[in-house]
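User: Teach me something about this protein's shape.
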Amino acid sequence: MSDVQPAPSGLFETATDQEAIEKAVAAAAPAAVERADLAMVNTLDPSLRDPMFALLSSLADNKYMLGRRYAEWCTGAPMLESAVAAAAMAQDELGHARSFYPLLRGFPNANGRDVAQMEDRGWQQRSTNALACLDRSFRNWAEFLAANVLVDTAFTTLLSAALSAPYEPLRQRAAKIVQEEAGHWVHGAGWIRRAPAHLSSALAAVWDDALTWFGQADDPVLSPLAQAGILADNPEGLRRKLRARLEPLLDEAEVGEPLFTRQLPWDRWDATTRRLRAPAS
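Assistant: First, the predicted structure itself:
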């Protein structure tokens, strides 16, 4: 990591758990990404740098917005245990985002984008290219669970395909994130089996966002990365793996139909922003 270490802050002096102190200080003054990670962009074939930038940018934006949406339920979950879980998952997702954003600085002027960072002033007011279903707050607990099980698992499915990626910064982050995401799945699956009210409609509302995020067979981002061996699966393979993970759970809860037979709205897919456009009014 960076040679510059965050200075201890009196804000955390009353804490007694050393690990908690370290996490709090790190969150308040995050260390910069290693310079070696930034230099690793030079190990990528030039033709793969734009696709990799687009993937990292999409992961960062989506992880950031999902973390914010989880955080909004830290005091609104139906049970104390789930409020604690929402807080923990929010911390995880924001941490994942924070690990991806600095990598973008290794792609100078990639796609002409200004690479902002989470610690920059006014950063929270910037627009993102996160999935459309994350544009607004979850209106009820069922919407939280739908994002927990569908959206979060879509990102994990892709990162699982990067566990052997030759691009080291992605491979290292994927390994850590996939491990942390196991708890997110356990939480969501446990609640899905209870089939709370409005769950079917909440799942349907985010299904298209989650399943289209991998793009089509000729996706300009994931397809070349899969062909180069950076990802273990192409877009269709990733979609199949996500469906295979979801199907037993959703069928057990009797909320799988008609989701698995619905047609995805590719006419609204924007491969540049990696999100669906709003339906025509």
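Now, about its shape. The two ends are 50 Å apart (CA to CA). The chain has nine helices and two strands. If you'd like, I can walk through any region in more detail.
User: That's plenty for now, thanks!
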